[in-house]
Amino acid sequence: MGTHYKGNKKEIRALDAFIKLNRASESLNSRLSTQLNEWNLTVSQFGALEALYHLGPMNLSELSQKLLKSGGNITMVADNLEKRGLLVRKRSKTDRRYVKVELTYEGKNLIESIFPEHVTNIVNEMIALDPGELEELSRLCKKLGRKV
């Protein structure tokens, strides 16, 4: 479905591309989030676990930047993961204002057990594109995402 806006060609082309990009992203995320629901995780919670697993402990500000989420959202995500025993907050011994979050043993075990299946599901979704198309999509998304 494209735009029904009656603008000039440049506007219509941009709106059509935006709508298609957004619909594809939402559709893909909807299918992948079904799996996350089975593990009782939100997309943001999964993202936090994955980031902490692959990048190591960090403060909430760093985590919010990695996940492109607001500070308030990341605080709520961390609170909920902490309640489940999947991450812990640790205050710096040298600067009590600095608090980092890190995975607990349970959190590390959870992400290690579910991440391979998540990758498989992503691969199965992306199989609609051939290798060249995947590389082109990656290049275009990177270009679009870095536009300032």
At a glance:
With 148 residues, this protein is mostly helical.
Neighbour order of strands in the largest sheet: 1-3-2
Helices and strands, in order, run as: HHEHHEEHH
What is the number of E strands?
Answer: 3
The rough form would be described as: globular
Provide the CATH superfamily of the largest domain.
Winged helix-like DNA-binding domain superfamily/Winged helix DNA-binding domain
Task: Quickly list its features.
148 residues; mainly alpha; Arc Repressor Mutant, subunit A; globular
Protein model, in words:
The chain is mostly helical and about 150 residues long. The chain folds into 2 domains: about 40 residues; about 100 residues, Arc Repressor Mutant, subunit A. The chain is about 70% helix and about 10% strand. The chain is built from 6 helices and 3 strands, in the order H-H-E-H-H-E-E-H-H. A 3-stranded antiparallel sheet has the order 1-3-2. Strand 2 and strand 3 form a beta hairpin. It is globular and about 60 Å long. The mean pLDDT is about 90.
